[in-house]
Amino acid sequence: MPRWSGPAGLVIRQVGAAAAAVAVVLAVTATPASAHARLASTSPAEDATLSTPVETVEFTFDDRVREQFVTIVVAGPEGRSYLRGDVEVDQFRLRQPVYPTGSGSYRVAWRVVGSDGHPVQGEFRFRVDLPSGQEPAVLPPAEAEDGPTSRSGTPWVLVAGGGLVLLAAGVALSSRTRGPRRSARNLPK
């Protein structure tokens, strides 16, 4: 005679099956224990004051970043967008071309998704003070041609969540179709 029989045994087996299914899903979707991607350095550096125009903004991270989830904003004087072209992603590094910067204050905002699937974001500022007569001839358009560099895709969390829902539905249907078992004790002799 089974150790767990009757309605209580059925509930215990269903809870055990559901717990095992959750454990399997967590084990399959788990990533190695690591911290989220962190920004290691930027060029220009945060709060730097430069005496030459900037034509690219570069980011270095301590972990790989996912190319399809990068967003960068470079705003200069009068709130103009200085983005020029697409961001270049090379595993740990991002390189964003910008219109040559003139004298003024600039704000750089960024958002990336690291290899662990977690988004990280931040911002920094730098200043450009050019000598008289060395302002760049080319300025970004008043109406930005380029919006923020952005790429999108389906986050793995949605895929894993959908798989978990399907697995739970399968366990529920499986236990429902079996029906209750009759215990040998309850049968007449």
Structure commentary:
- The protein is of the alpha+beta class.
- Helix content is 25%, strand content 25%.
- Helix 1 runs antiparallel to helix 2 (156-178).
- The longest helix is centred in the N-terminal third of the chain and has 24 residues, at 6-29.
- The radius of gyration is 28 Å and the shape is rod-shaped.
- It starts with 5 loop residues before the first helix and ends in an 11-residue tail after the last helix.
Task: Quickly list its features.
alpha+beta; 2 helices
Concise synopsis of the structure shown:
The chain has 189 residues and is an alpha+beta fold.
Give the SSE layout.
Blueprint: H1 6-29, E1 39-43, E2 49-50, E3 56-61, E4 71-75, E5 88-90, E6 93-97, E7 104-113, E8 119-128, E9 149-150, H2 156-178
Parallel strand pairs: 2-8
Antiparallel strand pairs: 1-3, 3-6, 4-7, 4-9, 5-6, 7-8
Helix pairs in contact: 1-2
